[in-house]
Amino acid sequence: MFDAFSIGPFIIWTRLVFFLLGVALAADFFLRLAESAHLSLQHFREHALRYLAAFLLGGRLIAVVGAYRVYVRDLPRLFVFWDGGFSFLGGAIGIGFILYLSTRLSRATFLQWLDALVPAMLFGLAFDWFGQFAAGSAYGKPSDLPWAVTYDTIGVRYTIPIHPVQLYYALALLALTFLLLVIRKHGTRAGAQTLVGILSAAVLTFFFEYFRGDFTIPVFATKMDFVVLVLLFASLGVLAALELALSRRGLLVYEGTLIALFCGYLIARSRLGFATVELRFSQLLAVLSVLGTIVYVVAHRRRHPNL
To answer: Taking Cα atoms as reference points, which of 276, 239, 282, 281 lies closest to residue 261?
Structure first.
């Protein structure tokens, strides 16, 4: 463990160093990818503070949602920004949100920007995981594998060798970043990097989270919940495909029917008695990101067949 080191009277936290390094490298990587794709960077110069605020607020929001019970019990802690509760992924989502708003009227579509943002986000996220490994956070379960590690700190509840799950994430994300660069070189249509990147990262997340040994707030779901989610997102994909063909009234009827069916299931869910499975918040987020990405890429390619 190498949680911190001192330079004179100053204590430098290793995770913070890796985090800031990841932010700097990811930002430079993103701008280079965007420039190579001939995307205009003018709005970054005009709205730099807006992007910075979105990164900070998005990172804090996702961290708070992932551990909401902790903050519900201690509401003033919401404003204690130095408690370590920050999500690099949340920050990237915040950037993506402002990017979507800023590029709605531009010639380049949001998906073209995502093709630059996703590889950069995964690259920066790998450094964040290196920092968590050094800090002993997001640690793994006990393991007898040769590469298992041992932490001697009160922050880790195991004193025996455990999975270095943080390194699993970091190395896998670096490999995935390289794969996306290959796809970028040989791809012909917008969305290939976004689809492969988010799909692969979601699968890795869902798998690696089973090696995590730190405490978490569980999310309970049933198998039927996943079926309903798939049907919901498939229906949204159908809606996107029919949007140009349906009248405004037809769209409202279709959307109203979807909302009614989904809300009806949520109301009746507790009475159906389905067996539940326990997930981590990141696993649920991975499932939602996969479904949402597939629908968005399919809809985008239908609307922009030349991109």
So the answer is: 239
Alpha carbons within 13 angstroms on the beta-carbon side of residue 237 total 16
Q: Which residues contact 265 (CB under 8 A, 6 or more apart)?
A: 228
Residues in a beta bridge with 222: 276
Q: What pLDDT, in 10s, does the model give residues 257-306?
A: 777 877 777 777 777 777 777 778 788 888 888 888 887 887 777 777 77
* Span 131-167, pLDDT tens digits: 888 888 888 899 999 999 988 877 788 888 999 999 9
Which pTM was predicted?
A: 0.81
Q: Which positions ≥6 away from 263 have C-beta within 8 Å? A: none
